[in-house]
């Protein structure tokens, strides 16, 4: 199984980082404006792109406040089906370390490579949002 990793230091509290990846308004501020999510284990979050021409549905598997968030992709795009997204949050001095893993890919295809690059961009967008630069969502529709 293939997996991608991204790690970044963010000048924001672990609480703010946790909110940005669990609260609907936080997700809408850096990822996609069409984010429907509530921070509740077992709930299904939806992330729409291009007027919902593409839709990702994620089951919230684990929520450990200011420590860890885990989602499982329920399908919608075959290559994402069954993949897991894990966000690990830790304090590092006055900064917050965020380690993101998108795992359980069946293989490292060209689509995997494209998604890996996009996640890299999104992680920096999340950092900018949390550090007060207000970049807005990467996808607006």
Q: Note the gap between the termini.
A: 32 Å
Put simply, the count of helices is 3
CATH topology: Alpha-D-Glucose-1,6-Bisphosphate, Chain A, domain 4
Radius of gyration: 14 Å
**Which segments are poorly predicted (pLDDT under 50) over 5 or more consecutive residues?**
none
Going across the biggest sheet, name each strand in turn.
Answer: 1-7-6-5-4-3-2
CATH superfamily: START domain
Class, according to the CATH hierarchy?
Answer: Alpha Beta
Shape summary: globular
Tally of individual domains: 1
Strand content: 35-45%
Order of helices and strands: EHHEEEEEEH
Helix content: 10-25%
Verbal overview:
By secondary structure, the protein is an alpha+beta fold. The protein has a single domain (2-130), classed as Alpha-D-Glucose-1,6-Bisphosphate, Chain A, domain 4. Helix content is 25%, strand content 39%. It has helices spanning 14-22, 24-28, 110-130; strands spanning 2-10, 34-36, 44-49, 54-64, 68-73, 84-92, 95-105. The chain has a seven-stranded antiparallel beta sheet with strand order 1-7-6-5-4-3-2. Strand 6 and strand 7 form a beta hairpin. The longest helix has 21 residues, at 110-130. The mean pLDDT is 95.
């Amino acid at each position: 199984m293939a997996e991608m990793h991204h790690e970044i230091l963010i000048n924001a509290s672990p609480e703010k980082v946790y909110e940005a990846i669990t609260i609907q308004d936080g997700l809408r501020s850096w990822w996609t404006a069409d984010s429907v999510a509530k921070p509740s284990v077992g709930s299904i979050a939806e992330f729409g792109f291009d007027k919902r021409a593409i839709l990702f549905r994620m089951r919230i598997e684990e929520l450990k406040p200011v420590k860890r968030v885990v989602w499982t992709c329920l399908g919608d795009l075959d290559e994402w089906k069954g993949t897991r997204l894990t966000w690990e949050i830790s304090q590092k001095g006055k900064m917050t370390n965020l380690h993101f893993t998108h795992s359980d890919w069946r293989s490292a295809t060209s689509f995997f490579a494209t998604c890996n690059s996009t996640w890299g961009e999104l992680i920096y967008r999340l950092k900018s949002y949390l550090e007060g630069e207000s970049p807005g969502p990467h996808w607006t529709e």
